[in-house]
Design a protein that fits this description.
This is Deoxyguanosinetriphosphate triphosphohydrolase-like protein. Keywords: Hydrolase. Belongs to the dGTPase family. Type 2 subfamily. The chain is an all-alpha fold. It has a domain at 194-315. Helices cover 64% and strands 0% of the residues. It has helices spanning 3-10, 37-46, 49-53, 72-90, 94-103, 112-122, 131-142, 156-162, 168-177, 184-188, 194-218, 223-226, 230-242, 252-282, 287-292, 301-319, 322-344, 351-358, 362-374, 378-389. α4 crosses α11, α6 (112-122) runs parallel beside α17 (322-344) and α11 (194-218) runs antiparallel to α14.
Length: 395
């Protein structure tokens, strides 16, 4: 391992994940000569087909609705940037944080949460659909890159972080397949690593901030409406105090961006201080102690309360906005009808999935169809739907 990497690992806190002590990969592999295992995980994720497809998957606004709106790919990059910044200060493993952040949405469907909800409803009789579990399924099974195994064979710690939520029935299935593996903590009531906890919070910080940005940019919410959100309005007022010219009509974009920048910075500092206090109070000696402690990475109570108000505002004013709901309804129709058409006749899919579906029982066929749809980009799903139905639901 290069001297620089060795020096970085020497700076890790005792409760951080050390790649030299990883629980390993499901298929054992020789150690890379120039990279740690977590660096290798990150690189495999970046080179995966599922990661590339994120550029054409919806965050809130459909991919075709504007070039400047966030996609799942840009969201994942923003989460990784926030995660690394916090990890460095807390002396956690930055490479592991980056790997988890970049992979956490690999299993998301086209059309964002609308697509996920529709696919979950379609799969109700076949085990349901969870995007976190699908992300794990992508890296464990669905990626086809290596000749010796399915998936990309990531380390336990990266896989654990990807699976941030899991229904008990699915955790039990995972435990049967992999005793003591990534499903066990959901059954035992244990916590994941600090790196995984951090990625979960960085995800929340990122999407709250960029949904404000994209929501205002789209015209669906306004800076005037956001004055009712204390967390945002505080930074808007600070920006206006320091730069009075931003009150002019031609500078509203800069005002929005400056307020969001300050909000992001304060949330990052809040997480760092609150987490340091929790670590000092619980004093975990190592990663195993972290797993048996309560969640240690988080906001202060005051910031958590203010963040909740912002989330409620976004849900009410943006996610449930009539224009978004109208698009959501059509997107869900696309997913439902694709699922029905493929399930009725699997040969409508590409050759590989079609063959797998035809060889499976009813539940297995439905899962192959779900995998195929979940892997689609927005525009591919729309194109397939138009090809099969002749209807163009979203221009």
């Amino acid at each position: 391992m290069p001297d620089r990497a060795t020096a970085c690992l020497a700076l890790l806190a005792p409760y951080a994940c050390d790649p030299a002590r990883t629980r390993g990969r499901r298929v054992a592999e020789p150690v890379a000569p120039t990279r740690t295992d977590y660096q290798r995980d990150r690189d495999r994720i970046v080179h995966s087909s599922a990661f590339r497809r994120l550029v054409y998957k919806t965050q809130v606004f459909l991919n075709h609705e504007g070039d400047l709106f966030r996609t799942r790919l840009t969201h994942s990059l923003e989460v990784a940037q926030l995660g690394r910044s916090i990890a460095r200060t807390l002396r956690l493993n930055e490479d592991l944080v980056e790997a988890i952040c970049l992979a956490h949405d690999l299993g998301h469907t086209p059309f964002g949460h609308a697509g996920q909800d529709a696919l979950n409803a379609c799969m109700r009789d076949y085990g349901g659909f969870e995007h976190n579990l699908q992300s794990l399924r992508v890296v464990d099974t669905l990626e086809e890159r290596y000749p010796q195994y399915d998936g990309i064979n990531l380390t336990f710690e990266t896989r654990e972080g990807i699976l941030k939520h899991c229904a008990r029935r699915n955790a039990e299935i995972l435990e049967q397949r992999e005793p003591g593996g990534v499903g066990a903590r959901f059954l035992l009531g244990l916590q994941p690593s600090l790196e995984a906890q951090l990625c979960n919070l960085a995800d929340e910080i990122a999407y709250n901030a960029h949904d404000v940005d994209d929501g205002v940019r789209s015209g669906l919410i306004t800076l005037e409406q956001l004055r009712a959100v204390p967390l945002f309005d505080r930074y808007r007022q600070q920006a206006l105090h320091d730069y009075p010219h931003l009150a002019q009509s031609g500078h509203q974009g800069r005002l929005r961006k400056e307020a969001i920048r300050r909000m992001l910075s304060d949330q990052v500092y809040d997480v760092i201080e609150a987490t340091r206090a929790a670590l000092q109070a619980h004093a975990p000696a190592d990663v195993d102690a972290v797993r048996h402690a309560p969640p240690l990475v988080g906001f202060s109570p005051a910031m958590r309360a203010q963040s909740l108000v912002l989330k409620q505002f976004l849900h009410r004013q943006l996610y449930r906005h009539p224009q978004v709901v109208q698009t959501t309804d059509k997107a869900q129709q696309v997913v439902r009808e694709l699922f029905t058409l493929y399930l009725q006749d699997p040969t409508r899919m590409r050759a590989g999935p079609a063959a797998a579906a035809l060889a499976a029982d009813a539940a297995g066929r439905a899962r192959v169809v779900a995998d195929f749809i979940a892997g689609m980009t927005d525009r591919y799903a729309l194109g397939e739907h138009e090809r099969l139905t002749g209807a163009r639901l979203l221009a």
